[in-house]
Design a protein that fits this description.
single chain, 136 residues, mainly alpha, 2 domains, 5 helices, transmembrane, DUF6249 domain-containing protein, DUF6249, transmembrane helix
């Protein structure tokens, strides 16, 4: 098998292509937002606000938990997909790519641990209200 037929080369090319498409999409989105703002300024209208990203609305605990779950699910999907591909192609080299999913799995586990620790810290930092005596 030549290096051009290697699954790693195909995956690398796919990742690079997706990254470039994401950058292009971001460029055109920002360009459209700037045009919208300039048009509003020219017409004397109030400048539209920047859209608030959903991440900024989440608490650190929820954001960390969400990121951890997404990373773990993604890693399991990668590992299972490449395990099936290895079975279909009958080449054990493809399982090397499947092992890359463990990196995402461990990062996701780290985010879940961070979420747990943040939640624990929030509970400890919360002031304990002593019971009030209303017997007077």
């Amino acid at each position: 098998m030549s290096w051009m037929e290697s699954p790693l080369v195909i995956i690398f090319a796919f990742v690079i292509t997706l990254s470039i498409l994401g950058i292009i999409k971001n460029y055109y989105t920002r360009r459209m937002q700037h045009k919208e703002r300039l048009t509003a300024i020219e017409k004397g209208l109030p400048i539209p606000r920047e859209p608030v990203s959903p991440k900024s609305r989440l608490s650190p605990v929820a954001s960390s938990r969400k990121t951890g779950i997404v990373l773990i699910a993604t890693s399991l999907g990668i590992m299972i997909a490449f395990a099936f591909i290895a079975l279909l192609v009958k080449e054990k080299e493809v399982l090397v790519v499947s092992s890359l999913g463990t990196v995402l799995l461990l990062i996701g586990a780290g985010y879940l641990l961070n979420s747990y620790l943040l939640k624990k810290d929030e509970k400890q930092a919360a002031p304990q209200n002593p019971p009030s005596d209303n017997n007077e």
